[in-house]
Amino acid sequence: MTPAASPTARHWLAYPLGLARRSPTFVVGLVIVLFFLLLAVFAPLIAPFNPTQSFSYEVLQAPGGRFFLGSDGNGMDVFSRVIYGSRYAFGIAIPAGLIMIGIGMPLGLLAGYKGGWLDEVLLRTLDVLRAFPTIILALAVVAATGQSLVSMVVVIGLLDSPIFARVVRAEVLTLRSSTFVKAAIAVGNPAWRVMFVHILPNAILGATAQLPMRMAWAVRISATLAFIGVGIQAPTPEWGAMIRQGAEYVITGEWWAALFPGLALMTLVLGFNLLGDGLTDLLDPKRRGVGK
Amino acid sequence: MGETGARIAKFLLMRVAVSVPVILGIVFLTFMLIRLGGQDPVAMLAGPMADEAMLSALRAQLQLDQPMLLQFGHYMLRLAQGDLGVSWQGGIPVWGEILHLFPATLELVLLSVGLATLIGVPIGMRAATHPNGWFDQLSRFGSLAGFSMPTYWMGLMAILVFFYILRWAPPPMGRLSIEVVAPTVVTGSILVDCILEGNWQALGSALAHLALPVACFTLLAAAPMIKQSRAILIEIMNSDYVRYARANGFSKTTIRKMALRNAATPLLTFLGSELTSLLAAAALVEYIFSLSGLGQWGLNAILLGDFAVVQGYVLTLALFSVFIFMVIDLIVMLLEPRR
Amino acid sequence: MSLLSVDNLHVHFIARGINNQLRTAKALNGVSFDLEPGQVLGLVGETGAGKSLTALALLGLLRPPAQVVAGKIQFEGQDLGLVDNPAGRSARGKSITLIPQSPKTSLDPTARIGEQLIRIQREHGQTDMVKAHARAIEMLEQVQIPDPAQRMKAWPHELSGGMAQRVLIAAGLINSPRLVIADEPTTGLDLTVQAEVLDIFKRLVSANGMSAIIITHDLGIVAHYCDRMAVMFAGTIIEEGPVGKVFEEQRHPYTQSLIASTPKQIAMHGFASAVGSPPNLYDLPTGCVYKDRCPKAQAVCDTTLPTLGVGSTHRVRCHLPNGKP
What we know:
The structure holds 3 protein chains of 3 kinds.
Chain A (H helix, E strand, L loop, with lengths): L13 H9 L1 H18 L1 H4 L31 H37 L1 H16 L2 H12 L3 H28 L2 H9 L3 H18 L1 H19 L10 H12 L5 H28 L9
Helix pairs in contact in A: 1-2, 2-4, 2-12, 4-5, 4-7, 4-10, 4-12, 5-7, 6-7, 7-9, 7-10, 8-9, 10-11, 10-12, 11-12
Chain B lengths: L1 H35 L4 H6 L5 H10 L6 H13 L13 H36 L4 H15 L2 H15 L24 H8 L2 H38 L2 H8 L4 H38 L4 H11 L2 H29 L4
Helix pairs in contact in B: 1-13, 5-6, 5-9, 5-11, 6-9, 7-9, 7-11, 8-9, 9-11, 11-12, 11-13, 12-13
Chain C lengths: L3 E13 L5 E14 L4 E5 L6 H8 L7 E10 L2 E2 L6 H6 L4 E4 L3 H4 L6 H11 L5 H14 L5 H4 L9 H13 L5 E5 L7 H17 L3 E6 L2 H7 L2 E6 L2 E7 H7 L3 H8 L2 H7 L38 E2 L5 E2 L9
Parallel strand pairs in C: 3-8, 3-9, 6-7, 7-8
Antiparallel strand pairs in C: 1-2, 1-4, 4-5, 9-10, 10-12, 11-12
Helix pairs in contact in C: 4-5, 5-7, 7-8
């Protein structure tokens, strides 16, 4: 550390390196998520084959050779399908996340700030959700409302909202009894102003760490649903559906059709989880201390 | 003792009173959801040969043409008499089948959760006592990996490695090898039945068949255990009373015991909620490994639109969840002086 | 030989700021004082001056991000070491005890009062449970808790703040320590209860010939219950001496402004000049730490200052200790 140098004189790399030192989980998670995001965006440029193009004479080819990761039971290239699969993963996670924020955030804010019947309703809903197996609920609803991408997104987003709302609500409750908010009220700020200017930014900060976790769950459950046979189906290159297809061949030893989509799925979900975990680390003021 | 008895009675009463609306809500929700769907179970039941007349007749017979609330009313009436309806795949009574299959699922879940607790809690505790050390980082990563892995995929990979490649595990079909004689069904739980009968050969086979699914499921269950016990313990270690104990020069062992005592309640509560959600997740594991359990049956029913079975399945899960929470809260109430 | 001798204690907090640069807060800067057997020392200062930190250092309870950078602590002639070590641990709870700040949260919620009082004795070698039990009841009597035998079975959450504090006093004295440190013993207590609790404390300490350090920001408590007082500011002791003398002479400008800020003084003389904002421990000035707030600061205050003795028992860290204005 140069004592006399001004802050702007630090090497440009110092900031990200410093971040990495403080929370390697965050950086690893970010790298993973960005990697898959790039795959999703540039899929047509990266994938060697059209993901739904079936080569009927080259069914279940082992990896190597013409098909980098092998071909599946329909003769489609596993590698290309895995790459395109990331489009579906983000295509579900991002809109679902937006729905979750769009509904959960105001819900949590209002419930935490106003309390009253809205709060009660939220808590009761959470109670029911707690006792109700969420997967079954998602299953039933998606099966009921039609097996399309949109219905999956909507259902997942809706299911996530109460959970996100609960986190936001908890943040709001803590903030509401904090001194600086009390001061803002005492000085005479109207309720809406306190909510938007004082509480909202801080609540968002606290709830931000939840966002990646929820997206991880969204990716996961959409794949699970596809695996069971609900929602997206073959030949769409969605990872869950791909695992479902590949499952039948595992027993006979053709492992690649099921392994690679699962690997991709696990890595992306892990990436989101690491991101969220790292964010919690970074945003938690108590963790700033240096040991030893 | 009488006073404690009175407290317990009061608690149970209140808990039952509160749970009833929740369960009713769940049953109602399930009922509506499954009927709102585009599935037409009548078509499935009648088969491809049926014509319109037969379909309408069937529909009327099953009361599917009546307004939904009315249908719900009928269902509740029958429920009150203990009639859970019949599965539309073969006419099996739902209640009987639940009794038959539920112990199998319970067997899987309890074994796995038990193992997961035995493994996960000590790991989480060790991580908490050396925060940010290498063990902590490793266990956190491991726990996150467990969170991220899709169970069914892990099951598939396990089958690949341990069955196909290594030939260690038996083929993932059912809970017993074909050549082994099954024990007489007493409880429905194969392990228990084998032990009761002294049928060691079947026991061995059953254990072998359960090994992989339990292993996968345990890993899934251990992840949240590790994370939560670590979080709980860290909070305890930073508490005022631990600091005071240190100020009094308590030995590390004493402080550890103190921490454990304080961790018992939050851990138990968490265990309760974990059991509930894992029971539902068990369905997937059963599906992969073809362990005929309640989850597999329920899952299939949802996909096929077998209404009565779905309702029975969800009802069972909900009842179980309420029961577990009640037991845990009761234990907590008796242990904790703070109630 | 003094009972306790603290010499040149420096404690820093090292943390990483949001841009990952190391930031050091100098929380204790050269704290030194001695304590004789049977003396009660009052440690005063505003919030953040380093009072509780000194106590934690004495007890060897400092953990990262706090780091002891220099200093020595000797108790009964033995070097206590500055971090957790076996010597410190055997002394803690037995020869040096702490009466912590928040009574209700400092007690183990899952153990009854009696069990906790017995546990403290057992941890320090008492094997006779009957004697331990009797001693616990005896201590509860001493702190004037009614119906002590019944109270032994009480849970911590059943106690009021005042009672919990008294239990903590009992716990702090149960092993007959030589030194008791009371950290803000009146936080959260009603005014009437405060006086009771402190009376009990002082009485027991005097009766058993113990030394004590009372950490507080309340000058009234110091005036009533302490023999000596040490005034802390920005991690340094800026004035130290017998209570009467310090109050009378007020050699350091900070002492003067502290005393002038008590409600009674304000009622009599009106508001003194604004006390100012707390010092930034991350960026302490060279020279006298108080110079930015001092009305009498001069050029010489920019250099380091020595400890001047105004008499052998009264010390001041000031270049211009000219007493009351």
